[in-house]
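tool=predict chain=A
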Amino acid sequence: MADEISLTIPREPDFHRVAHLVLGGLAVRLDLTIEHLEDLQLALDSLLDATDPGFEQDVTVRMRPRGGSLVTVVGPLSQRVLEEVDGGGDGLSLRRVLDSTVDAVEVDGDHVLLTKQVARG
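tool=predict ok
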């Protein structure tokens, strides 16, 4: 499987389930473990939930298998969220949640790239 799945949804929490459904379908095709799927869902929810009032632009979630990993791109995100992802912080910050659930986190413009190794060893 190659290519990319792209999903654009409103920011309302009710639409997060649609992103979960797509991610779950992709997980089945990639033969992901339930632990990998739960990690990816938690990382995705953390970004989708970290929204600012007034930042109402639809969010796009792009998922693409690459080698032994799954890359998920989420955005556009507000400047505050991007700074929290990029800057880390103490306590249970957004960056700490992402670092504990995926293998790599990168800010690219107004999007965040999440990479999760999915190949079984």
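The two ends are 19 Å apart (CA to CA). The CA atoms of residues 73 and 113 lie 4 Å apart.
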